[in-house]
Design goal:
By secondary structure, the chain is an all-alpha fold. It has one domain (2-266). The chain has helices at 2-24, 33-39, 53-72, 81-87, 90-106, 110-130, 140-171, 181-203, 206-223, 228-254, 260-266. α5 (90-106) packs antiparallel against α6 and α8 packs antiparallel against α9.
Length: 268
């Protein structure tokens, strides 16, 4: 069972990467993800370069599945294989959801795309909860190859959920229920900041929060070159990024003795 899960995790990731590459090449419905995104503009979508984080995420997930394969097929299995068992089929389902999201987005089924993203987020949360991720002092390899990739992945999917909701509302001409688009964007920024701070203190997931900082800086970059009203959004986004960073830095310092690099250097 462990070997089968490890192989299926790896293959499902390769499938997700392949589908995303095809999407970026415009091979699915003759358009790219970015082209569809630009068709339904909203004030919460960060600068285009921000989405390059997918490269880091997929690289980390390749290490994630590669380490799984190494552990699953090792002659001397270590207790780390329990992580593979606890992830069950949730990572596979997440990757399938990723593929379906790409197809739904490129065929402009934005409502379905939102549903799929939230389902992906739920499955990633299931992995986090099942494995007690970031709640105990695990070996460095477990932290680096198991925990950090899922933290990065879930952090970006959380941002994508908010962005996709904004795109969905933009597509259907939602008028904001009395609030202006900038006001709703500030609410979304506040929700992003709150979510990431909660993940820092409730789950010790500073890597998750690092993705939130990256996204808000991307939002700052986008709006800092626009009109004065949107420059206000740029300032709010940067303030949010700084607030998350300060909380992550404080939490990291307070818990520095549990940091895997600290423990590695000090042999503890």
């Amino acid at each position: 069972m462990i070997k089968r899960l490890a192989v299926l995790n790896f293959l499902s990731l390769l499938l997700a990467i392949a589908v995303n590459v095809l999407a970026q090449l415009g091979k699915i419905n003759d358009q790219t993800i970015g082209e569809v995104s630009h068709r339904y503009p909203n004030l919460f979508t960060p600068a285009d370069y921000t989405f390059s984080i997918w490269g880091l995420i997929y690289l980390s997930l390749l290490l994630f599945t590669g380490y799984m394969l190494t552990e699953a097929f090792s002659k001397e299995r270590k207790k780390e294989v329990a992580f593979i068992r606890k992830t069950s089929f949730w990572f596979i389902i997440t990757n399938i959801g990723n593929c379906l999201w790409v197809i739904a987005w490129l065929y402009e089924f934005s409502g379905m795309a939102v549903v799929l993203l939230f389902l992906m987020m739920m499955k990633l949360i299931k992995i986090i909860l099942n494995t007690d991720m970031e709640l105990y002092n695990a070996p460095f390899k477990v932290i680096a190859f198991y925990w950090w990739p899922i933290c990065l992945y879930s952090g970006w999917v959380a941002v994508a959920c908010i962005t996709n909701v904004a795109s969905f509302l933009s597509e259907y001409g939602w008028q904001g229920s009395g609030l202006t688009p900038p006001e709703w964007t500030i609410i979304m920024i506040a929700a992003t900041v709150l979510l990431n701070i909660l993940m820092i203190y409730l789950r010790n997931m500073r890597e998750f929060a690092a993705v939130g900082i990256w996204a808000l800086i991307g939002l700052y970059v986008r709006h800092s070159t626009e009109n004065s009203e949107n420059q206000m959004l740029a300032r709010v986004a940067m303030a949010g990024a700084i607030l998350i960073f300060l909380n992550a830095a404080y939490h990291g310092y307070k818990n520095r003795k549990t940091n895997p690099i600290y423990r590695l250097i000090n042999g503890s």
